[in-house]
Amino acid sequence: MKVAVVGAGLAGICATKQCLDYGLDVTTFEKTNTIGGTWVYTDYVGEDDFGLDVHTSMYQNLRTNFPKEIMCFPDYDFTGPQQSYVSANEVLQFIKKYAQEFQVEKRIQFRREIVRIRPKATSKWEIMVRNLMNETIEIQIFDAVMVCNGHYSVPRTPEFRGLDLYKGKTLHSHSFRSADVFKVDTIKRRWNIQGETVLVIGGASSGTDVAYFVSKVAQKATISTHDSKRSFPSEIHKKPDVKEFTENGVIFEDGSREDFSVVIFATGYLYSFPFLSMDCGITVDDNFIQPLFKHTINIKFPTMCLIGMPYLVHPPLICYLQIQLFLKFFTGAKTLPSTEEMMRITNEEMEIRWKNGLARKHAHMMGVDLLGDYYADVCNLAGLPPVKPFMMEIYRQNQRNLTRDSVKFREIFGIFFVNMSH
Question: For this UniProt entry, which residues form the secretion signal (predicted)?
């Protein structure tokens, strides 16, 4: 049976390896010239030499917001670095080592862009592939498709009243690489030229990191977050949500107003599958992907899955479990519930989220309250051993600590989880 894997990032490499373990004929398509996906750092932003938007959202000095002890695959430990909160490059090397050890690269076609995927009447998939090296188009047929294109490459920028009036600079954290551009150098100081005043909108991990780096070099760094309990380093000024923009700054929800020369949107990303035809039956409404059974299997066409869509999770672990779930059903090792049963289960799970006040954009959010049950469901359906308790315990403690000062916590206590894991 022939399986197509879209993307050679962390999820795609894991999917390719697991397909090989199941004895499947797998081909992985990657539009860049290397593996690693979003973990591949580059100074460039915008388009690459092939006219494609740069995929990565990595910035300089990025360290993981999860310790490496829970950044491993169940079948492959994260060895090497002593520090628990590892750099982006160390994660990339982990992915490359995993791919090399299991000879995954032999199955990857690099510089291949997926133009269109659509189902055929014969219960197969037609995939149109563009070879970026010679601009040729090829049609290939597969029995199954595993979509592993990630969800940290298409910036999400909320609409704000007055944003079109704002005359300062704006960028999304997707295009942030270094805070050096906000430095006040010696010459500027000599002429009494003030540095940048920067507002970061969004208080999650990337927003906190960006604000921290900017605070070291800019005249002033401010972060806007709706989490009133969240604490930040003293050099970062904390403000509530932005109500609207003005010509030179913003008005916050508490009625206060400030001027800023730069606004950075650390407001997350959009799920995007431009290569999926409407015939695939997948829709995305404010980041709510439908219809997915257990956040991964296309209910209308269960020989297609989307890997790694949930967030606030253990990324390698959830990819591995979802891949195993899909392959168990695809190979016939397990029997998939009926279409009606999958829809019923999915609708009931979503209704619980809506009743608990979650918005559609949080449809695939997990976190401490939901993740354990999700893992248990997937392991039970796939006939896999339960997730080891220490994985959830480290996850819970990590999430509690990240509500403090994420950057300084990772810098000071990075070694703690190494000791704890032993």
Answer: none
